[in-house]
């Protein structure tokens, strides 16, 4: 029997505060236990809708993120050469005076001379709005080098997307396919969901060149060759069409399968939808033998055939175009097998399994619902096949069309927002494409007519001059990269250095380690940041940078604005930005200060004087005189970011947070600002959660109850159904422009590119780097005789996230360096032994790293963990830290332009960085080495104390003393 005097459940601390984690993009709810004014323990919040109490290693290690030796402590002004890391500490008044003196003349002279680019930021609802107030078109978020293909591919097809904005139906799916999914984004919800699937015996198939994390627990691993996922999807589509295992009823009810497409080669209407006098789309009524409104429900729409319209034009239904394209023998399993590295028999079997799960399961839910046309349904018919995809498919130059291919595959199975399938998370689905277009016109008061980022509906929305040349420094929304919905952060430094299309004055960046792990062509990027013109002036005149930690990028700033840790700040995880909703509820959340940063000492025991970047941005806006940041009397409109969160309205009644709105706090979604709103969030665990009505949780694109609910919250402008787009007329508009039609046409140098890649149906093409460095190799031959025969990619480890995780003292105990992993057969082929030092060469350069054998990789691929390698002197790591002596980045090998040098190394539709197109050769190192190469001159930051960080032991000692004194 237990000793009754023994406390079996001791309290973790004196006090607990609930907030939101920021150790990755998952945004889990956490409880931070405090003891004696220090963090004692971080645990998951069981009540939180995202993680339901689950917490990963990253979240638990948030303690050491807050107490990191790398934390900045005061504003810094550069005193040495840019890039050396030599600064003097200054006070905030001086720092803000300097920033204002740089930015205010730009605003008065030409706002576009400011380039404002934010990295792993979760406050884009503020930063994008601020850029609009400043009047610069040169604003971008990190998504352009992260996941814009995923977002755009989905939003231009089904009004939603994978990533963090949709989820599998964990309760009902019978077959889940994970495409290119690593362990970084949305990790705890995925772990919870996969646990449910394993418990129920549902099958999980992982499609990825590397088998790690989720793939390791999958029932089947498909070790695909990088960049061929779209081709694999087309082979599955080919088989489904061949077997006639297609949900035609779904395609007609909810998608545009029956819409008529005009066939008029060379004409201005070729490939456009046939429309009536009011602009409504037409289909062919097979019973009445006439073209009718495609939205009617009292018709018999044809989905195959060729028809003659009343005006004599020829037209075919979208589905006929799909059949014509994907039943072509070039997409048969035997034709794509060798290219993808997947046996034809496996492709055929998986196609059968998809069809069986979708159509033979007979899943129905006894939930009555009413569709948008007023038809009442006694039940919801399921299609228990679901898919989830991430950066592994999107970070290729063919990634946009690959994302669209996966949505096409789901649509043919009827597996979008049906029970058991991929599900939308509010505020999705959105109209296709979403209504907000990118801002480009400047009003008399200097404001842009809209936020700089948005969705292009046609060539007229591009941000180009009257010659068709880019107006943005990153060339986003130009004819080179028209649908660049998140901007192109990976191109700004080269273009600013080159003055293409013009010189900028100031580069303002937040949380973007662009001189190191977020840079392609890392060595050249560092050169561009420090290069001077003939007069001895920096080609990028001024750089203002904000970060919480002494990252590599801090060394390249002229002025450093030290940010807080995530436990010292307010943040809004907003429905206007990147919400934390699930398929059954709308949710948002806040972070709030667990500590006042003024009370938190640095590692050396000295006070820190840091401020949240969002509050600094608001103060800067008021100092500059931006209209939205001043009251009528010219005084600052907002005290700080917390005040902005509560009082700012994007539209009447619409603010950053949807919970506890209205002066009495009793409204949700819309309502007047509530001065006590943040306190209500704090009282409720830091989040707001509003369930979707039970009758509205599926078929959201055409569910009357859902669309009316979504309209009430402001998610959609009307309750009209959202028609899913198998065929994109938006893309065809660009193709017609490239063929010489319309008032907005591309310059000659872009015409062939636009005509090729703006196909209204998904296409597959060889990734640009693969094609250009291996141009002489026969088309369907495995490229072993090429100069660069191997693909090289990175994976995100589950225990770290970007560079900020790999400087964390506790997470470093899991891994302090990385290897280049290769299959043992690949090692034997090249005469390489396990743990040999090897030279890895791309068309862009060579690195020297240590190899490690791993059989969890497709043999034509080598891989490594991302962002572990550090530059010496950065992050306050010890002088000989393994991260800088043995760790490395593949980024040194990745060019920021294609091998031909004609375009950015990016997707031609969206401009997303093609990180995973890298091709390399390997050989045993020619000389004895014991450090990774290249190495760069150490930064001048003060190094960390070489002694171990013994935070836990120190805390136990303090707690023991405290207990003994009672």
The DSSP helix count reads 26
First-last Cα distance: 28 Å
**Assembly annotation:** single chain
What gross morphology would you assign?
globular
Main sheet, how many strands, which sense, barrel? 7 strands, mixed
Unreliable segments of 5+ consecutive residues? 776-784
Report the radius of gyration as a whole number of Å.
Answer: 28 Å
Helix proportion range: 10-25%
| Average of the residue pLDDT scores | 94
What portion of the residues fall into strands of 2 or more residues?
15-25%
Strand order of the biggest β-sheet: 5-4-25-24-23-6-7
Commentary on this structure:
Helix 3 (92-109) packs across helix 16, helix 4 (124-134) packs parallel to helix 16 (613-624) and helix 7 (229-243) runs antiparallel to helix 10 (333-340). Helix 15 (522-530) links the parallel strand 23 (506-510) and strand 24. The chain is α/β, with parallel strands linked by helices and 966 residues long. The longest helix has 18 residues, at 92-109. The chain is built from 26 helices and 34 strands.
Features:
six-stranded mixed sheet, alpha/beta, 966 residues, 26 helices, 25% helix, 15% strand
Topology (SSEs and partners):
Elements: E1 15-20, E2 29-35, E3 38-44, H1 57-60, H2 62-66, E4 76-78, E5 87-89, H3 92-109, E6 114-118, H4 124-134, E7 139-140, H5 148-155, E8 166-168, E9 175-179, H6 187-200, E10 203-207, E11 220-222, H7 229-243, H8 248-254, E12 260-263, E13 282-285, E14 290-293, E15 307-308, E16 314-317, H9 318-326, H10 333-340, H11 344-359, E17 364-365, E18 369-370, E19 376-377, E20 380-381, E21 385-389, H12 391-394, H13 399-412, E22 422-424, H14 492-498, E23 506-510, H15 522-530, E24 542-547, E25 559-562, E26 571-573, E27 585-591, H16 613-624, H17 641-647, H18 677-683, E28 687-691, H19 704-713, H20 729-738, H21 748-757, H22 768-773, E29 790-795, H23 802-805, E30 820-822, H24 824-829, E31 837-842, E32 845-853, E33 861-865, H25 882-885, E34 919-924, H26 951-964
Parallel strand pairs: 6-7, 6-23, 9-10, 9-21, 10-11, 23-24, 24-25, 29-33, 30-32
Antiparallel strand pairs: 1-2, 2-3, 4-5, 4-25, 8-22, 12-16, 13-14, 15-16, 17-20, 18-19, 26-27, 27-28, 29-34, 31-32, 31-34
């Amino acid at each position: 029997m237990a000793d009754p005097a023994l406390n079996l459940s001791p309290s973790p601390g004196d006090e607990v505060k609930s907030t939101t984690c920021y150790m990755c993009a998952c945004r889990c709810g956490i409880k931070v236990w405090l003891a004696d004014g220090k963090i004692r323990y971080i645990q998951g919040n069981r009540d939180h809708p995202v993680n339901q109490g689950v917490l990963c290693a990253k979240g638990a290690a948030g303690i050491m993120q807050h107490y990191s030796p790398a934390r900045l402590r005061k504003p810094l002004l550069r005193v040495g050469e840019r890039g050396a890391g030599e600064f003097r500490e200054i006070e905030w008044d001086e720092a803000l005076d300097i920033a204002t003196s740089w930015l205010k003349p730009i605003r008065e002279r030409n706002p576009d001379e400011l380039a404002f680019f934010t990295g792993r930021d979760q406050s884009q609802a503020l930063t994008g709005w601020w850029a609009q107030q400043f009047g610069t078109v040169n604003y971008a978020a990190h998504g352009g080098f992260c996941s814009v293909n995923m977002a755009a591919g989905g939003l231009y097809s089904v009004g939603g997307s994978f990533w963090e904005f949709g989820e599998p139906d964990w309760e009902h799916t019978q077959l889940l396919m994970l495409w290119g999914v690593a362990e970084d984004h949305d990790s705890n919800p995925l772990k919870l969901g996969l646990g449910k699937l394993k418990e129920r015996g549902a099958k999980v198939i992982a499609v990825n060149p590397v088998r790690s994390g989720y793939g390791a627990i999958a029932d089947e691993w498909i070790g695909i060759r990088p960049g061929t996922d779209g081709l694999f999807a087309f082979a599955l589509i080919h088989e489904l069409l061949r077997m006639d295992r297609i949900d035609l009823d779904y395609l007609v009810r909810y998608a545009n399968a029956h819409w008529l497409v005009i066939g008029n080669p060379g004409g201005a209407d070729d490939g456009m939808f046939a429309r009536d006098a009011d602009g409504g789309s037409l289909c062919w009524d097979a019973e009445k033998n006439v073209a009718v409104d495609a939205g009617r429900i009292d018709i018999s729409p044809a989905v195959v055939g060729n028809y003659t319209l009343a005006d004599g034009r020829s037209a075919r239904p979208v589905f006929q175009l799909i059949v014509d394209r994907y039943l072509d023998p070039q997409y048969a399993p035997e034709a794509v097998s060798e290219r993808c590295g997947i046996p034809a028999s496996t492709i055929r079997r998986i196609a059968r399994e998809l069809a069986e799960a979708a159509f033979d399961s007979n899943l129905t839910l006894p939930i009555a619902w009413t569709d948008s046309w007023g038809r009442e349904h006694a039940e919801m018919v399921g299609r228990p096949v679901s898919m989830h995809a991430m950066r592994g498919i999107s970070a290729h130059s063919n990634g946009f069309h690959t994302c669209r291919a996966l949505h096409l595959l789901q649509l043919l199975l009827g597996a979008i927002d049906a029970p058991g399938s991929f599900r939308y998370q509010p505020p999705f689905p959105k109209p296709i494409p979403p209504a907000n277009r990118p801002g480009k016109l400047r009003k008399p008061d200097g404001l842009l007519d809209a936020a700089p980022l948005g969705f292009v509906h046609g060539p007229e929305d591009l941000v180009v001059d009257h010659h068709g040349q880019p107006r943005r420094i990153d060339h986003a929304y130009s004819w080179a990269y028209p649908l660049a919905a998140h901007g192109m952060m990976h191109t700004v430094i080269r273009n600013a250095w080159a003055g293409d299309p013009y010189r900028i004055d100031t580069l303002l960046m937040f949380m973007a380690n662009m001189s190191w792990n977020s840079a392609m062509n890392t060595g050249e990027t560092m050169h561009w940041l420090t290069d001077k013109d003939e007069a001895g002036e920096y080609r990028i005149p001024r750089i203002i940078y904000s970060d919480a930690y002494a990252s590599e990028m801090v060394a390249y700033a002229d002025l450093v604005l030290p940010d807080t840790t995530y436990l010292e700040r307010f943040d809004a995880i907003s429905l206007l930005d990147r919400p934390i909703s699930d398929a059954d509820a709308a949710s948002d959340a806040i972070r709030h200060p667990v500590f006042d940063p003024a009370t938190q000492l640095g590692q050396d025991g000295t006070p820190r004087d840091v401020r949240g970047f969002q509050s600094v941005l608001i103060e800067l806006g008021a100092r500059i005189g931006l209209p939205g940041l001043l009251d009528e009397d010219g005084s600052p409109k907002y005290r700080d970011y917390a005040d902005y969160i509560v009082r700012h309205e994007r539209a009447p009644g619409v603010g950053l947070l949807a919970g506890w709105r209205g002066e009495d706090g009793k409204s949700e979604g819309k309502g007047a600002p509530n001065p006590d709103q943040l306190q209500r969030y704090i009282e409720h665990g830091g989040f707001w959660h509003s369930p979707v009505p039970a009758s509205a949780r599926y078929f959201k694109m055409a569910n009357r109850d859902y669309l009316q609910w979504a309209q009430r919250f402001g998610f959609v402008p009307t309750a009209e159904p959202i028609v899913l787009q198998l065929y994109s007329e938006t893309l065809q508009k660009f193709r017609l422009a490239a063929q010489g039609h319309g008032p907005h046409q591309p310059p000659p140098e872009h015409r062939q590119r636009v005509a090729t890649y703006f196909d209204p149906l998904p296409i597959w093409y060889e990734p640009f780097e693969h094609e250009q460095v291996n141009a002489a190799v026969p088309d369907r031959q495995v490229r072993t005789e090429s100069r660069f025969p191997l693909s090289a990619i990175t994976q995100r480890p589950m225990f770290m996230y970007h560079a900020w995780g790999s400087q964390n003292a506790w997470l470093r105990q899991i891994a302090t360096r990385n290897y280049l992993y290769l299959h043992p057969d690949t090692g034997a082929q090249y005469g390489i032994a396990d743990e040999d030092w090897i030279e890895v060469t791309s068309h862009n350069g060579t690195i020297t790293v240590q190899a490690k054998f791993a059989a969890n990789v497709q043999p034509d691929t080598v891989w490594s963990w991302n962002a572990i390698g550090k530059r010496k002197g950065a992050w306050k790591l010890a002088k000989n830290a393994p991260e800088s002596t043995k760790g490395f980045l593949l980024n040194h090998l990745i060019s920021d332009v294609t091998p031909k040098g004609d375009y950015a190394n990016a997707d031609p539709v969206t401009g997303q960085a093609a990180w995973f197109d890298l091709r390399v050769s390997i050989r045993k190192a020619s000389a004895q080495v014991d450090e990774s190469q290249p190495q760069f001159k150490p930064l001048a930051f003060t190094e960390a104390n070489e002694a171990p960080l013994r935070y836990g032991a120190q805390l136990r000692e303090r707690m023991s003393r405290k207990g003994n004194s009672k």
